[in-house]
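== Polypeptide entry ==
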Amino acid sequence: MKFIDEATIKVYAGDGGNGIATFRREKYEPMGGPSGGDGGRGGSIHLVADRNINTLVDYRYTRVFRGQRGENGRSAGCYGAQGEDLMLRVPVGTVISDKATGQMLIDLAEHGQECLIAKGGKGGLGNIHFKSSINRAPRQCTKGEPGEEFELYMELKVLADVGLLGMPNAGKSTFIRSVSAAKPKVADYPFTTLHPNLGVVRVDSNRSFVIADVPGLIEGAAEGAGLGHQFLRHLSRTSLLLHLVDLAPLHEGVDPVQEAKAIVEELKKYDAELHEKPRWLVLNKVDMLEDPKARVADFVQAFGWDGPVFAISAITGNGCKELTYAIMEHLELTKQHHSEAHGAQDDIAAA
């Protein structure tokens, strides 16, 4: 299935049915009173988050969705049937915005979360409602109201705890294959990864986290070069970024320090908030170095890095286990701090 992470659609809720003006005409009451029923409500359009869907491909080719119109009222006081509601299922993590204003409407971040996105029009009133002591034979009735209509921009942001950041061929896909059951494509040429991959990393039976591998960045990505800028949105929900750097590049003349600085600069240009997220430096392919410790120390000094550093070999698994345990501990501490902060805010609000 083709991975699609954005789409624009138009939704039209159903119009309400019209009310009618009729009168009772029975054998023993040939000139009866008003009996026109109301029109039915138009069908509304709902969005539902479904964890069994992982792409917006269904909305790339079908772009218009219409709710069912309500039926018109009938004689003998019969109301028209309501239009059937339309349920649109989207992946968990989809953000819905109004295309015209750019305002975010809803973030469907949990499985089963539902949102009424376009309300069906009310049905019109039949003449039964206009009867009064001075108007025994009303001929008034009203038409149904039109349903709401919107042009929506749908953007999928995958739900992951950890995001991988790095140049093409830095070893991101190899790393995610090494620590999880995900099997992204791996090859010795750049841009092997063409869409995000998710992997669940299990530290033990009851502790796990989700890691996201997105296409590699290149210099100029913030201006649209390469592929990675299209997928940086998928890192926005993560709690931690792993900056993977290839310490043993295939081509001569490639400076890992300059490449690492270019990645950080592109991240800053694209989204300052993303740039401020906690970020760890992961130096990959140490198995191909003669003196790994000295090379790592030289890189950290040249890069000017003072944060956490991990030296690994994704292909052999060396250092990967220690890294996953450190990530798990960091995520658990982060969750604990968030829960304590929320608890303190609740106490202040209660006071």
Notes: The CA atoms of residues 205 and 253 lie 45 Å apart.
